[in-house]
Design brief:
Elements lengths: L12 H11 L7 H14 L3 E5 L2 H11 L7 E5 L4 H9 L3 E5 L10 H11 E4 L2 E4 L6 E4 L11 H11 L4 E3 L7 E2 L2 E2 L6 E5 L12 E5 L2 H11 L21 H11 L2 H19 L5 E2 L7 E2 L5 E5 L7 H10 L26 H6 L3 E4 L7 H15 L1
Parallel strand pairs: 2-3, 2-6, 7-10
Antiparallel strand pairs: 1-11, 4-5, 8-9, 8-13, 10-11, 12-14, 14-15
Helix pairs in contact: 1-8, 2-8, 3-4, 3-7, 5-6, 9-12
The structure holds pyridoxal-5'-phosphate (PLP).
The site of pyridoxal-5'-phosphate (PLP) has 14 residues, from helix 3 and helix 4.
Length: 380
């Protein structure tokens, strides 16, 4: 079976883990945690980085640090992994779900502007969503598949409406937006080191950004908001710190970030040339503003003339190839069915036509050729 995406653990992971055991630094204090924060800050161009136990935990900390409170609304694209919306709910807030742009699959600044214009009013310095009476507290763009959202457009809205931007960049390490690195595109940006991401720590996350106060607060509440060395705490905190064991794996992975992203892009480019030109088939979006980190690769299948993607995936499985459907939009998920939302034309017509294909960084040329031949075969 050629798997969809498995970790590539063939560098210094074992050596660094042994070092943790030998030195007794296995928990959330240790040199690898600091080193990983430094590596991620350097590679993303962010001034500060705070390591967390997961990407979801990082999103939760980032939203709190950006000022999101109970009963607020946070604008989130419906086309995302459910963790983006869960993190909003963990704050006691509710996602305000917005459709995506068809040419990027990311939050569309024009639609966000339209929703803000139409559905909000200012009251005593607060931006209120008229229908629910809730305060709108932040915008959370998602870098879907490793492609940054149109951040210049969203920045303008941030200025006009005074809404902080917290970017879910879970799988976008190595991406660029208009030649700019991802570390400074939003007020806070969150990465994930989950096992299915391009660089993994087994599990883990990172909050990055340039504002010392925001990052200081995120760090403070990630470790129970402790003041000094005794049992004194100045607000409600969390136990969200990454361990040195996770960070050891993360450091070994980050050493190979460029190599891994290059492999992901090579795999994506080959699917594009060999499959996206077939009738009724397209590649994943490639807007001019961004260089995607190409976390996942695959195809988009026209409904006319082709089988549903779930059927295609089953046929590929029979041929020894793991292929999968992709994110079911958040507004169609039970926990968020009642969340306020805009019209959802783009993501509703899209999500059941996406087929992700094997794209591990160590996928061999021969195995990719097998995948391509099998996809052509099942599309016939
Ligand atoms: C993976 C992912 C997350 C969650 O990260 P975890 O580390 O698994 O908690 C959030 N958002 C997106 C878009 C993701 O792909």
């Amino acid at each position: 079976m050629i798997p969809l995406a498995t970790p590539n653990i063939s560098g210094n992971e074992g050596r660094y883990l042994e070092e943790c055991v030998r030195t007794n630094y296995v928990s959330s204090v240790g040199p690898f945690v600091d080193r990983l924060e430094g590596m991620v800050a350097a590679s993303t161009g962010a001034r500060y980085a705070v390591a967390t136990s997961s990407g979801t935990a990082g999103l939760h900390l980032a939203l709190i640090s950006a000022g999101v409170e109970r009963d607020d609304l946070v604008m989130v694209p419906s086309f995302t992994f459910i963790a983006s919306a869960n993190a909003v709910a963990h704050c006691g807030a509710t996602p305000w779900l917005i459709d995506i742009a068809p040419d990027s699959w990311t939050l569309d600044p024009a639609q966000v502007a339209e929703a803000l214009e139409r559905d909000t009013c200012r009251e005593g310095g607060r931006l209120l969503h008229v229908a629910t009476g809730r305060r709108v507290a932040a915008i959370l763009p998602v870098y879907a598949l490793g492609m940054p959202a149109d951040m210049d457009g969203l920045r303008k809205l941030e200025g006009a409406y005074r809404l902080p931007l917290v970017a879910d960049s879970a799988a976008a390490a190595g991406a660029r937006y208009r030649s700019r690195n991802i570390g400074g595109l939003a007020d806070l940006t969150v990465l994930s080191f989950n096992g299915n991401k391009t660089v993994t720590a087994g599990g883990g996350g990172m909050v990055i950004g340039n504002d010392p106060e925001l990052l200081r607060h995120a760090r403070h509440i990630s470790t129970t908001a402790r003041v000094g060395n005794d049992y004194d705490h100045d607000c409600i905190g969390y136990n969200y710190r990454m361990t040195n064991l996770q960070a050891a794996v993360g450091c070994a992975q980050m050493e190979r970030l460029d190599e891994f992203v290059a492999a992901k892009r090579r795999i994506d480019a080959r699917y594009r040339t060999e499959l996206a030109a077939l009738p009724g088939i397209a590649g994943f979006p490639a807007p001019a503003w961004g260089e995607s980190a190409c976390w996942f690769s695959g195809i988009v299948v026209d409904r006319q003339g082709h089988r549903p993607v779930a059927e295609l995936a089953a046929l590929l499985r029979d041929r020894g190839i793991e292929a999968r459907t992709f994110w079911k939009p958040v507004h169609l998920q039970r926990p968020f069915a009642a969340a306020p939302r805009s019209r959802m034309d783009v993501c509703e017509s899209l999500w059941q036509r996406i087929l992700t294909l094997p794209c591990s960084t160590h996928l061999s040329d021969d195995d990719q050729a097998r995948v391509i031949a099998a996809v052509k075969d099942v599309l016939r």
